[in-house]
Amino acid sequence: MHAIAVSEPGGSEKLELISVPTPQPGPGEVLVRTQAAGINRADILQREGHYPPPPGVTDVMGLEALGVIEALGEAVSGHEVGEQTLALLAGGAYAEYFVVPAGQLLSLPQGIDPLVAAGLVEVAATVVSNFDHVKLGSGQTVLIHGGAGGVGSFAIQYAKALGARVFVTAGTQSKLDYCRSLGADEGFDYHEDWHSAVMVATQDRGVDVILDIIGAKYLEMNVSSLALDGRLVIIGMQKGTRGTLNIAELLNRRGTVTATNLRFRTPEQKAQICRRVEQVVWPMISSGQIVPGHQTRVPFDQAARGHALLESGEQMGKIILVNS
User: What are the residue boundaries of the Enoyl reductase (ER) domain, all occurrences included (predicted)?
Assistant: First the structure.
């Protein structure tokens, strides 16, 4: 089969189409023929050599996919060959076929183009698991960094569905307008003093929850933006891995700083998150309460172009690779 591989760590030009053996499903696993795969920031980090896959997982990138089941491993029930499915992966979606534990398969939300759904799996699983983790609820205020991206555009709508007041940061006026069109109450240009703007908008109270994809660069400002008993959850490190934490300020705010990832969770944990997405998010998608964000589709063999587009900072919403 064909797969997208990295010749050596580096830029998007290091991606190449190669031939590799087709994987075979083991007990509890299924083999899926890939129809589409989402591109995520984690893929770029892996391509650059900063985010290797968990032990025992293929080096082929790709954390979410749409496909058709081709074969069932031993002891798999509830699925059948020929079934179209979505999948949450630890790796492997940038290929013609991938193997995944059956518990990490998801049904398709009703009434949605399957290709659109292909770009929802990772963002929905990330946002739902993290907002559950920090207990975001009705009447609270959340600040979402990178509001115009794939995670951000979903997080805005899910937070609004939970009854939260939503603030975002983004880099251009068009992106801020896009975030507002999705339901954001306030938007701040991250090139400017967004921390002061947050404090003005909250009358110096701060926000209850921050969902952060940036990492070290924003650590001090994030803590300073928390309300009493506020929670900062870090899910990315686009701008560094080492920051300075003012412990006194964190104590004064009774704040919590936590960091999570999805890729390194156990199959059992991922299966639970998948069921949560099916039960909570898919009905919101099908009813129109959450509208899938902007999506850009790139041919499978042009993965390098997809990566370059994501890195350009010009993209709004999600990029997916489509296997014709």
Answer: 10-321
